[in-house]
Amino acid sequence: MTDAADPRAALRAELRxxxxxxxxxxxxxASQSLVxxxxxxxxxxxxxxxxxxxxxxxxxxxxxLIQGLRQRDQVYHLPIVGADRxxxxxxxxxGGDITMNRYGIPEPVCASSDLLEPAQMDVVLVPLLGFDQxxxxxxxxxxxxxxxxxxxxxxxAPGSPLLVGIAYAMQEVAQIDAMPWDVRLDHIATERALIxxxx
Length: 199
Prior knowledge:
This protein is an alpha/beta fold. The chain has one domain: Rossmann fold, CATH 3.40.50.10420. It has five helices and eleven strands, in the order αααβαβββββββαβββ. The chain has helices at residues 9-20, 24-38, 42-46, 63-71, 144-148, and strands at residues 49-51, 75-81, 87-91, 98-100, 106-108, 123-127, 130-131, 137-138, 162-166, 187-189, 194-196. A hairpin with a 4-residue loop joins β10 and β11. The longest helix has 15 residues, at 24-38.
């Protein structure tokens, strides 16, 4: 989709510029503070299969939470982009083998038998460019998460997996107009708070 055809392109550009303006120190502090916000969600502390992402292009890093997951015997997964533009999730530990996908994003190297479908995950930490308090998310426009978690689109209450958007607090906007294919988030976790997005 070209910028001219995308009504949300200008907002994406504005939010990307906001995020790009953060210093390395601000990103590290936000990553450390994010852990306290996430730990307010009971399922983040107990559910076994947690999916995250490898932070690129200024996304809020998740490195600070991995040690806690390992101490609680939870398994951390990273997304793998399939040929059908659907996500699967492979287990990964710090120091584990990675390979670059076609977008230059690291993915774990693992056997196909170790890959999990989106519905098999317990908690999914979702990257985003912008969000509102209702759980609407503005992503990069590729639609990978919306397509992969489409089975959750019409739910009325948090289900499984639990979808938690990860963002800097300054990525919040007053309202994001949802598209028909958008999948609403259950929570948003920032360096300042855990936001419950239940209707």
